[in-house]
Structure formats: C-alpha cells, structure tokens
Design a protein that fits this description.
- This protein is α/β, with parallel strands linked by helices and 270 residues long.
- It folds into 2 domains: 4-94 and 185-267, HAD superfamily/HAD-like (Rossmann fold, 3-Layer(aba) Sandwich), CATH 3.40.50.1000; 98-181, Threonyl-tRNA Synthetase, Chain A, domain 2.
- Helix content is 35%, strand content 21%.
- It contains 9 helices and 12 strands.
- Strands 2-1-10-11-12 form a 5-stranded parallel β-sheet. Strands 6-7-9-8 form a 4-stranded antiparallel β-sheet, with helices on one face. A 3-stranded antiparallel β-sheet has the order 3-4-5, covered by helices on one side.
- Strand 3 (63-65) and strand 4 form a beta hairpin.
- The radius of gyration is 18 Å and the shape is globular.
- The two termini are 14 Å apart.
Length: 270
C-alpha cells in the first residue's frame, strides 16, 4: 500500500462553518490515524486556533497556518535537519508580518476607503461580529501574517483590492471574510511539506487535498488527488483544475465522503 498524506482545510470542510461542529470528521481522523495516514491542517486559521483543533483531534503532524503564512513543524517530526525553536516547534515563515499589512491598510484608508479589520475591533466586538465566544475570538485575533477584513462597503471593494494589488499585496477570499496578505501561499506550503514527507515516507507517497472554497485552490493544485466538498449553499467552488474530484456533502458530511476517496486512493490512476 502506498503511503498517503491528507492536507485539509478546516472551516466548511473539516468542521461546519457556522456551528463549528465536527460531525463525523473527528471519528474519521481517528480512522485515518489507524491507517497511518497523516492529516495536515491547511487553513486560514491562526496558530492559536489550530492548536485547539489539533488537541481536539489528537493530531501530532505539522500544520499550515493563515493561508500559508507559515508552516509549523513539531520537534523531531522530520528528523534533526531543522532548527527547533524553544517552544518545541520549527516555523517556516512564508508571509510578511501582520504589522506590514496593517501599515499598508492605513494607506488605503487615506484614499477614502472605509473598512473594518480584525485589528480594528476589540475582542468583545470581534466575538459579536463573527458569532464566537470571547476565547475563540481572542485566538482569531492573533494573526501574525495578514489581516482579516470583516466589513467593507461593496461599492468600494474593487478599488480596495486594486490599490492593495498595486502595492504587491494579495487578497485571499475564504468562506465568510477575506484576508490581505503578502507571501502567504497554501500551495507553496503544501509543496514544501510534500518534499519533506517524500523523504520521510518515500517518493511514491500519494498526497490528497480536501477543501471547499477558492482559497483552497493553490493547495488542491499541489496534490495528487484534489477533492472539493460542497460549499454552504450546496454548490462547488469553481476551479480550473481538470482532475478535481467533487464529492457531495457540506462541511463534515463532505469530509466523510472525501475519506472514502482517500482509502480508495490506491486504486486511482495518479
């Protein structure tokens, strides 16, 4: 049996976007562990947010935070070739620090465009806007490689994006909000980890990606088997990936069907 690695988005895929419930996905991750299939989280969520989910799912694998802003690798996971930080993790940073993003956003405001980002509101207000508990909102607020835009006048959105792109920044659209980043790239992060996994597991390793929204496209382009679950409205995100596998089910229900594709991957023509 060829080794496999699963890269998975979180919101709208592994967990429900609105209820934040796992459904059957928690049980499925446990089954994947029994098959010795690593599950690598690859999400827009911050490290603090993912730490809670990794604990819930008993995951010990590396993980990708903030849409590819950084790769976090537990000590010794790939051997001794990496320099480990004092907290027991190696962090490979791909994105620019949030402070640089916030400086650029201040320039956009001077152009007369009104918007509200995570750093503009208190934790209490953030919890109210996104429908989270205080602790959940506090973890969401700890962004290190970008800024999440919560509110913007639709009539100003295209100009907002145009100005930032001219400055070399990237807009990444997710399920409910969008991020302003520079250097963040899920696909690049997946490729870096895939190379490390090939050294660990073998060159014949099969890489599987599961996502639901446009910000997962670069991740899905970088794997052998890209799988799309349905978005919250029942549709599939439009992506120009010829071999993408569309599975029915929204959020965890879709993840359950993606699991079937995962265990059947040995029969697939890669």
């Amino acid at each position: 049996m060829r080794p496999k690695v699963v890269f998975s988005d979180i919101d709208g895929t592994l967990i429900d976007t609105f209820t934040r419930e796992y459904g059957k996905s928690k049980e499925i991750v446990k089954k994947l562990k029994e098959y010795s299939i690593p599950v690598v989280l690859c999400s827009s969520k911050t490290r603090d947010e993912q730490d809670v989910i990794r604990k819930d799912l008993e995951l010990e694998e590396p993980f990708i935070v903030e849409n590819g802003g950084a790769i976090v690798i537990p000590e010794g996971y790939f051997g001794d070739e990496h320099i480990t930080r004092a907290d027991g993790y190696t962090v490979i940073e791909l994105g620019k620090p949030s402070v640089e993003i916030q400086k650029a956003l201040q320039e956009v405001r001077k152009a007369g465009i009104s918007f509200k980002g995570v750093s503009d509101v208190s934790v209490e207000k953030l919890a109210e806007i996104v429908g989270m508990t205080h602790d959940e909102a506090a973890r969401m607020s700890k962004r290190q490689y970008g800024e999440t835009i919560l509110e913007i006048d639709e009539s100003q959105k295209s100009r907002f994006e145009e100005i930032l792109r001219e400055k070399g920044f990237r807009i990444i659209h997710g399920g409910r909000y969008f991020d302003v980043t520079s250097g963040n790239d899920k696909g690049k992060a997946v490729k870096i980890l895939s190379d490390l996994y090939r050294k660990k597991l073998g060159d014949d390793t099969i890489f599987i990606g599961v996502g639901d929204s446009p910000n997962d496209e670069s991740m899905l382009r970088s794997v052998d088997i890209p799988i799309l679950v349905q978005m919250h409205d029942g549709s599939w995100a439009q992506m120009d990936i010829s071999k993408v596998v569309q599975v029915r089910g929204i959020g965890p229900a879709g993840w359950e069907n993606a699991f079937i594709k995962t265990v059947e991957a040995d029969a697939a023509e890669i």
